[in-house]
Amino acid sequence: MDPLKLTRARPGAPFTVTFDGREIEALPGQTIAAALWASGVTAWRTTRGEGRARGVFCGIGVCFDCLVTVDGRPGRRACLVAAVPGADVRTQVGTGHEEASPGQAGPGQAGPGQAGPGQARPEGAEPR
Known about the structure:
- By secondary structure, the protein is mainly beta.
- The protein has a domain at 11-95: Ubiquitin-like (UB roll).
- Helices cover 9% and strands 22% of the residues.
- It is built from 2 helices and 8 strands, in the order αββαββββββ.
- It has helices spanning 3-7, 32-38, and strands at residues 15-19, 22-26, 45-46, 53-54, 67-70, 73-77, 88-90, 92-93.
- The strands form 2 sheets. Strands 2-1-7-5-6 form a 5-stranded mixed β-sheet, with helices on one face.
- It is globular.
- The termini are far apart.
- Mean pLDDT is 79; it is low at 99-119.
């Protein structure tokens, strides 16, 4: 059965985010990982040592396999960061630190837009 019929949910209007130069559709409330999956993208990071593909593993922000660079900020967990209109999401190679600017949060460091368990917070939103 269609989950939308079960909940009578009506999603908001779709918008686009850019992933490695390609526009993908996202819905309000979706995480970056959910938008990527819905667009058929299952891997968006490679490991530093052997270049192995990674995507979502745990889906709750614990494993750090889903790291992406969002609007120039590396180390963002795609399963926790909400997709927002116009976001520039890029594949991350290794830790992404070579792409980081001074003062940006790296892997394992909470930064603006990192959500708590079970909630997606838009990039730059303050915790409650």
